[in-house]
Amino acid sequence: MPDVDVAVIGAGAAGLSVAAISAGLGLKVALFERGTMGGDCLNTGCVPSKALLAAAHAAAEARRAHRFGIRLPAPEVDWAGVRAHVDGAIAAIAPNDSAERFGAMGVTVVRASARFAERDVIEAGGRRYHFRRAVVAAGSSAIIPPIPGLAEVPFLTNDSLFSLTERPGHLLILGGGPIGLEMAQAHARLGCRVTVVEAAAIAGRDDPECIPPLREALTAEGVVLREGSRVQAVEPDDEGVALLLDDGTRLTGTHLLLAVGRVPRLAGLDLAAAGIAFTPRGVTTDLALRSVSNRRVWAAGDIADPKGLGPRAFTHVCSQHAGIIARSMLFRLPARLSYDALPRVTYTDPGLAQIGPTEAELRAAGRKDLTILRWPLAENDRLVAEGRAEGLVKLVTDSKGRLLGVSLVGPGVGDMAGLFVLMIGQRLSGLAGSVLPYPTTQEAAKRAASEFYTPKLLSAPVKRLVGLLKYLP
């Protein structure tokens, strides 16, 4: 007889969600975690990065309070205090992800490395666990690029960045994606010199129309952006570390942060022993997140590579995966993963948000019946009142007004993204006719949606009709 009904490898966002649902339904669950409960999101990712961004935002607001007629002295950044805030945020959330809490749910938490021994057996902590079903949710780690000399210098990843005891003097960041840009702005606002080196353009996955306001904001805050630059080699320097670029430039800094992407944590799992198909992209699954080669096994979170879609390294995707697995694995119901309405946000200031595909991605997929709607946030009364009227709402619809994708740039656009998640695939008439509270930034969403109908409403036939209707009593 199996020892457990459900075995879960990895106590990050995906694994914890699956374990909680399974235990809540009365199944016998074993949860394996070799590191810290809560995984990357709690300990080295979402929580500490957003806590650091909050501290940086407070410093930035103090510096620009003069726009409201308020004069404040330049903020003094206490690095130890900033670290205490970050650590405090982690500590406040940690009990929700703790072994004690999951033990109280009835989950057997095994604090050891886990590996597959057979198609239905996991070995961990000197024991063998036979399972009916297993979920691989081991997560991902930062890519360490094969740059000559990198092994000879100290460098940071998200695993080590938030444990720095001293503020970096000059932080060099390799990679201009979400992590690199968020940490660039945070450290610049907290008094560090920052240089970002990006081989292509910053925020390369986002809509190009939305990038200029962010680029201008980062530059204005002192972040040096080296776009279109490749690092040829890395070497030690008296200052700390030096990057040798392809144009012959030699950049020196005190610290180097690698932020060039994520790679699934496959090493040590011995997936082959269980006949689990995988590639460097992760565990190969169908759209129900079930292994294509071992039908006892599912995968969730950063390590899952659903057929044709590829991995998505977002905490909210982990929650989405848990729901798919609950439907497929626990209830044996049809389930099909879709990223059509998937949101992603870069929490800079101004922020970037993308819901569903970009215009370029839709055109590359062969869509020709596209209508593009834009509404500038300079027209939003709430942001005008706050002195932050900058940014853009861009909607991509089909010819019938069904929303396909949304691109946003501006203050707090992450909070607007949820509204559009609900609208993907729907006609814009519902949003255009909705009553939203005034004044809020979400009004910009309604104004953008209304742009689809305004030309029709003000067309010559409609004007003639109104002209005739005016004679009716």
TrEMBL record:
Pyridine nucleotide-disulphide oxidoreductase dimerisation domain span: 343-448
Pfam families given in the database record: Pyr_redox_2, Pyr_redox_dim
UniProt binding sites for NAD(+): G175, G176, G177, P178, I179, G180, L181, E182, E198, G261
Molecular function GO labels: flavin adenine dinucleotide binding; NAD(P)H dehydrogenase (quinone) activity; oxidoreductase activity, acting on a sulfur group of donors, NAD(P) as acceptor
Binding positions for FAD per the UniProt entry: K50, D302
TM regions (residue ranges): 6-27
Keywords attached to this entry: Disulfide bond, FAD, Flavoprotein, Membrane, NAD, NADP, Nucleotide-binding, Oxidoreductase, Redox-active center, Transmembrane, Transmembrane helix
Ranges where the FAD/NAD(P)-binding domain occurs: 5-307
Residue runs in coiled coils: none
S-S pairs: C41-C46
Cofactor binding mode and count: Binds 1 FAD per subunit.
SUPFAM superfamilies from the UniProt entry: FAD/NAD(P)-binding domain (SSF51905), FAD/NAD-linked reductases, dimerisation (C-terminal) domain (SSF55424)
InterPro entries with a match to the protein in the record: FAD/NAD-bd_sf, FAD/NAD-binding_dom, FAD/NAD-linked_Rdtase_dimer_sf, Pyr_nuc-diS_OxRdtase, Pyr_nucl-diS_OxRdtase_dimer, Pyr_OxRdtase_I_AS
The protein's required cofactors: FAD
Family listed: Belongs to the class-I pyridine nucleotide-disulfide oxidoreductase family.
Name of the protein described by the UniProt record: Dihydrolipoamide dehydrogenase
